[in-house]
UniProtKB/TrEMBL annotation:
SMART domains: AAA. The keyword Nucleotide-binding applies. It holds the Pfam family ABC_tran. PANTHER family: ABC TRANSPORTER ATP-BINDING PROTEIN ALBC-RELATED (PTHR42939:SF1). This is ABC transporter ATP-binding protein. Residues 5-230 form the ABC transporter domain. Keywords: ATP-binding, Nucleotide-binding, Transport. GO terms for molecular function: ATP binding. SUPFAM superfamilies: P-loop containing nucleoside triphosphate hydrolases. It comes from the Bacteria.
Length: 300
């Protein structure tokens, strides 16, 4: 499997605070990756490490098989849009495109100008006078016109209204189809990621909680609802993510790589948001990784 990003025991410390600790991650090339986590989870730190903006405190990270930002050629292979979609307020749209052409050896002027025309941006308009959605579209265009192999976005949807978010994601998918690039999209808006991402990484507490193909994760995670004693003999392969007990009822959210025998009265599939929330709640509770086949004494 070709990897776009590989992190091994990656850690980053700011003063006395660890933003990432022992982070292991393998992101396959050719995927649209949703990086999900609460504020302070370490998402921006991980993406900054992948772009070479900061260096690891511990461990290692490689991007497209090389150290991030090691050479000018490596820089040209990665497009990055930071959280606040940074642009030069006093430069016009056209001036941003000319600057992009000067700074990027693989710059595609046709792609850039066609995209500006399609989304209706005035080339003479100053970036500081664009709407939030227009600024996001311009930043996306500048990143894509580099023709990178990896596109990284740090919370690009956070400040956009629902219509602007949908338009941005549609534009992103069009660029992905043209560039055949790997995309890493950081967001806490799971419903938006669900529309476009086929690979999921959940980050919380500075650690990767779960990662994998979205379809595989949904196939292997379930909610089981039953009475006391219904789950005393779960297979060893089962990882209990969350357990809730109310009166006589027990509800388990679990991951199992094998087909489970029928336990309890109900077996339910999770949607992506429910899956993410289960891992975030486990991380918030500080329970770590549950021992396979054990019932955690957790209450809702």
């Amino acid at each position: 499997m070709t990897l776009a990003i590989e992190a091994r025991r990656l850690g980053r410390c700011y003063g006395q605070r660890w933003a990432l600790t022992d982070c292991d991650l393998r992101v396959p090339a050719g995927r649209i990756v949703g990086l999900v986590g609460p504020n302070g989870a370490g998402k921006s730190t991980l993406l900054s490490l992948a772009c070479g903006l900061i260096a690891p405190t511990t461990g290692s990270i490689s991007v497209l098989g090389s150290r991030p930002a090691a050479t000018a050629e490596q820089l040209a292979r990665v497009g990055f849009v930071a959280q606040d979609t940074p642009l030069y307020a006093n430069l016009s749209v056209a001036e941003h495109l000319r600057l992009g052409a000067k700074l990027n050896p693989r710059w595609d002027p046709r792609l850039a100008h066609d995209r500006v025309r399609r989304i209706g941006l005035d080339p003479g308009q100053k970036a500081g006078r664009l709407s939030g959605g227009q600024r996001a579209q311009l930043a996306l265009t500048l990143a894509a016109a580099k023709r990178p192999e990896l596109l990284i976005f740090d919370e690009p949807l956070a400040a956009l209204d629902p219509l602007a978010r949908r338009t941005f994601l549609q534009s992103l998918m069009e660029f992905v189809a043209e560039l055949a690039a790997t995309v890493v999209l950081s967001s806490h808006l799971v419903t938006d990621l669900e529309r476009v991402c086929d690979y999921l990484v959940v980050l919380a507490g500075g650690r990767v909680q779960v990662a994998g193909l979205a379809e595989d994760l949904l196939d292997t995670h379930h909610r089981l609802i039953g009475g006391q004693g219904d789950f005393d003999a779960l297979p060893a392969e089962v990882d209990i993510i969350r357990a809730e007990r109310t009166g006589r009822q027990t509800t388990l959210t679990l991951r199992s790589p094998v087909m489970l025998p029928y336990y309890g009265t109900q077996v339910q599939r999770l949607d992506l948001e429910e899956l993410v929330l289960a891992y975030l709640r486990r991380a918030e509770a500080g329970s770590g990784i549950a021992a396979p086949g054990r019932l955690l004494p957790t209450r809702s």
